Amino acid sequence: MMVITNQILWLALAIILAPLASGLITKVKNNLRLRQGQGILQPYRNLWKLFGKEEIVPANASWIFRVTPFVVFATSVAAVFFLSGDLLAIIFILALGRFFLALAALDAGSAFGGMGSSREMFISSFAEPAACLVIFAVYLTPGATWSLAHLLAGLALLIVILAETSRLPVDNQETHLELTMVHEAMLLDYSGPALALLELSAQIKQLFWLCLLVGTICPPVLLPYGFCLLGLIIVIAFIEVGIAKYRLFKVPDLLVFSVILALLAIVSALLGV
Amino acid sequence: MNLLINLKSLVVLDPLALFFLIVISLVSLPSLIYSIGYFKNKFTLTKFLSTQLVTLAFIVSMLLLVIVGNALAFLIVWELMTLLSYLLVLTDSEKEAAVGAASIYIIMTHIGTAFLTAAFFLIFRHSGSFDLAAMAAACQTMSPLLRNWLFIFFLIGFGTKAGIVPLHIWLPYAHPQAPSHISALMSGVMIKTALYGLIRFVFLVLGISSLWWGITVLTLAIISCLVGVIYALMEHDLKKLLAYHSVENIGIILLGLGLSMVFTRLNLNNLAALAMIAGLYHLINHAAFKGLLFLCAGSVQKGSGTLDMEKLGGLIKKMPWTAAFFLVGAMGISALPPLNGFVSEWLTLQAFFSGALKVPGMLALGFAVGIAALALTSGLAAACFVKAFGITFLALPRSQNAEQAKESPASMLLGMFLLALSVVGLGLLAPTIFNLLATVTAPICQASLQTSNIFSLGLQPNSTISPLFIAILLGSGFLAAIAAYGLLQGKTRLGRTWDCGYYQIGSRNEYTATAFSKPFRISFSLFLLPFRKTEKVKDSFYHVKSFVYETYTTKIFKKYLYDAGLGLLLHSAKRFKRVQAGSIHLYISYILATLVLLILLVKIL
């Protein structure tokens, strides 16, 4: 019982802190661009505003559209819950949320939604093998001793994270141009509390991936967990500012590169380097 | 030579046979219930009754196949099953396509049967009996070379029926032509009997004697997975799409069985059992969800009159039950928790993971390729079913047919409901089913695996997961979100889909199945070799009235393997035609020459 209570407390903390990570990344990005930028608490204000708004549901849509925000939220929370458990299962759980989101995007009958849905499934089907191989590499290198395999797996995972959290060079959260949208295109017909729930879910999922990377490669013995997390957030902000968006058909190349890095990690784990 | 048939050993009722009896019954019963509504107002009473009779005979032949303990009887029942299913593919024999599909099917499976017959008689030369136990004993004393050949014969023979790439060519023709519940039976169950044969004859009769057998099966499995799912993504006919997914899923099952062969050879008995449990688990799962999906496709066809996804859409409002059942099947096949496909794919990955530390390094690297392939396959399958469900059932209807679609009668819905229930049940009751499968695999792999804890399924101490627990967790997250939403929610009203401020959008603005799969078509263009046909329809020299645009992909196996082979055959036949020139003198000299040759041959031997 104690364990469960503990887990639920951690979960609540993760949900509360998730928007902060987004706020921090935006803040660092803005500062790097020599802008003052919004405050780091802006994501909270956005959520609060959206939760208070009226919701408009497209008349074409079915119950899939209504149910999806709750499913996506449940899968993001479950992913965080299993962070200390079986990592493979999390990949499948996140796939459940993505499946529903992609369906909901098609449900409204808009071409934007279809585009987002198709692109999301396209990118994620290449990200999944990379993620599984990273987990495999980590599984092959048990123990706390830090090795080359950890570094390679971490780099591979970083690329997966860029894809999974809709960041540059795979996707761009700051734009609503149809040529560049992926995740945003799927949310285009959502509004009000449903949109807030989906954004919160995306932020929770992002925090999950960041924690996974920190847990995988950062030497927690040397540096405290929170410090690593902050470092990772700054690294991602640097990547986003320093790189342009890839053409959609170049994205698989990037993810295949991540697969190769993961394979190298496996090789070095098998060789015991 | 004593009597070929020993009555006592004619029937084998071991756990393996019982498992397959369950798999066959699981799909057969709902399919039969479904067929009542499906054939209503379609056939005359005589045709209805005769079709039902053939269907029953087909089911009985499959049931018999898995319990016969004699290779000759196996071969006879095998042939019976093939012929009966051939008849069933021809049910709509007015359609030209059905006749062509049935021909491809029967030719392909007979090539397979020829290899099986050859293998059985090769063993018979050593054993002197068709009794399975005697054959197994004889195989132990054979030369390794002969056993290798026998393995190849069995692989080709059963692989043709199972639809392993490149022998999969008949599936996308035969499955779509048969009535939907027959497709469900053929794809859900019949191709599995080939895997039964593979386990029965390779694992139990022949015995795994080389490591490369398992590696070959694993390689073919990886190829089948990827080829099946990539072709499925390109398909816009609902039943053809499902047929290609059968190729993919047979691949996933073979990943488990191939791994099991590798582990058996390396004497890792517990791992061999785990891998085989994963394979068999996926086998029964595939029977459930593929049966369900084919029944749903039939319901769509009956309700709307078409299977072309580009002409469908919005069916979730016209056929809510069919849509819900299809969604369950789609989630199952896309390996989404907490449904059944998730459990078996997770188990397969577990088998890869657990084995990696215990096999030689190169093999472990091969396992990494297997893991990547399985993950890619499940990602692509999810994409394919977002397309299949999203384009068919969601948004606005794309044609008059879809607009006027009607929900299917109760008997069809009942059939689909039963299978949907088993998709959910096979997921949530995973530990129970794992234990049952452990008793099936225990005698085959000489291992004993049990799950003691309901929350743990795998062998690793850290991999504690249970679909039931995941379901509870997801359910509570879902309810918590609804509660929060209810507390905070303001007003909700219906509005228009965002149309960029232009006129109200219609079904012509929707994304199509072709557009949805375009990124995949471009990305896999090296393999798919896509090409397009464009045509301008002009009503005057200056004005283009409309534009015809069609995209195609090249089926490379058909074009470069089968069509090329067929061309060679026809070409050589043309050459041989010269021999038959029409001169009676020439023919008489042929007879004389043959006679002399035979006499010489007898003298020599």
Give a written overview of the molecule.
The complex is a heterodimer of chains A (273) and B (605). Chain A is mainly alpha-helical and 273 residues long. Chain A has one domain. Chain A contains ten helices and one strand; from the N terminus they run ααβαααααααα. Chain A has helices spanning 2-32, 42-51, 63-81, 87-107, 111-140, 148-164, 183-186, 192-217, 225-242, 251-271, and one strand at 55-58. Chain B has 605 residues and is mainly alpha-helical. A two-stranded antiparallel ribbon of chain B has the order 2-3. The longest helix of chain B has 36 residues, at 269-304.
Please describe the biggest sheet of chain A, giving its number of strands, its sense, and whether it closes into a barrel: none
Distance between the termini of chain B: 23 Å
Radius of gyration of chain B: 27 Å
SSE sequence of chain B, one letter per element: HHHHHHHHHHHHHHHHHHHEHHHEEHH
Annotation, overall tally of beta strands of chain A: 1
Largest inter-chain contact set:
A-B, 79 and 84 residues
Number of helices, where a helix is a run of at least 4 consecutive DSSP H or I residues of chain A: 10
The largest sheet of chain B has its strands arranged as 2-3
Please tally the β strands of chain B and state the result: 3
Number of domains of chain B: 3
- The ordered string of helix (H) and strand (E) elements of chain A is HHEHHHHHHHH
Give the SSE map.
The complex is a heterodimer of chains A (273) and B (605).
Chain A: H1 2-32, H2 42-51, E1 55-58, H3 63-81, H4 87-107, H5 111-140, H6 148-164, H7 183-186, H8 192-217, H9 225-242, H10 251-271
Chain B: H1 15-39, H2 45-65, H3 71-89, H4 96-127, H5 132-140, H6 144-162, H7 171-177, H8 180-206, H9 211-234, H10 238-265, H11 269-304, H12 315-318, H13 320-333, H14 340-356, H15 361-393, H16 400-403, H17 410-428, H18 430-445, H19 467-488, E1 492-495, H20 513-516, H21 518-523, H22 525-528, E2 531-538, E3 544-552, H23 556-576, H24 584-604
Antiparallel strand pairs in B: 2-3
Helix pairs in contact in B: 1-2, 1-8, 1-11, 1-17, 2-3, 2-8, 3-4, 3-8, 4-5, 4-6, 4-7, 5-8, 6-8, 7-8, 7-10, 8-10, 8-11, 9-10, 9-15, 10-11, 10-14, 10-15, 11-13, 11-14, 11-17, 11-18, 13-15, 13-17, 14-15, 14-17
